[in-house]
Specification:
This protein has 211 residues and is an alpha/beta fold.
Length: 211
């Protein structure tokens, strides 16, 4: 029996996936949570074979959750389920230890097979994302370690507010955007700066004279 934990901040999505998997004899949904911190608390105490994880979540997004979850449970198979098809994000997710990456537009059969493959440690990727990943890898090489990457004006604003210890909600209120938008900017900064956490990100920003 494959024990699966669902993580998504939309209750409708959690309910829909749970209902979809309800009659699958080989799969058991052992829990459903709404953010990354809840994921970490859950896997500290209970066995999970596959974590089906959304990328955009409040408190702690999918990228950061993947990093921390793999430290807690190195053998945990993480299957990202998202609407994001950015090549740089996909490659970064795999580098952080994810087993697979599926889009929410995937069919029921693709999702179920993806869960089964992930449980066996096989790499899983939505078919048309392969070309996107190849294109991403063919782009300009990432900055060398210690070299400042290019970031947008809005990403810099978010970074400066993170340095001032504003929460995601406070940043969203200050910039008049949604918390999901702030989470996206934070995730892009983690990827571009190759940072492990917000503290490391702020330290690099100071070293580069951004803040």
């Amino acid at each position: 029996m494959i024990k699966i934990l669902l993580a998504d901040d939309h209750q409708i999505m959690l309910g829909g996936i749970s209902a979809m998997l309800e009659n699958e004899k080989e799969i058991e949904v052992v829990g459903a949570v709404s953010n990354g911190l809840e994921v970490l608390e859950f896997i500290k105490n209970k066995e999970v074979d596959v974590l089906l994880l959304d990328l955009q979540m409040p408190v702690m997004d999918g990228l950061e959750t993947t990093m921390h979850a793999k430290k807690l449970r190195p053998k945990l198979n993480i299957l990202m389920l998202t609407t994001n098809d950015e090549g740089s994000i996909i490659t970064s997710i795999f580098k952080k230890g994810a087993t697979g990456y599926l889009l929410k537009s995937a069919s029921k059969s693709s999702l179920i097979q993806g869960i089964k493959d992930a449980a066996e440690g096989k790499k899983v990727l939505s078919s048309h994302l392969t070309a996107i990943m190849i294109d991403s890898l063919s782009e300009k090489p990432s900055p060398k370690k210690g070299e400042a990457p290019p970031i947008t004006k809005r990403e810099l604003e978010v970074l400066q507010l993170i340095a001032e210890e504003f929460t995601t909600q406070e940043i969203a209120d200050k910039l008049f955007v949604s918390t999901n938008t702030v989470a996206t900017h934070k995730r892009n900064l983690f990827v571009k700066m190759d940072a492990k956490n917000s503290v490391g990100m702020v330290k690099m920003a100071i070293d580069w004279g951004w803040i």
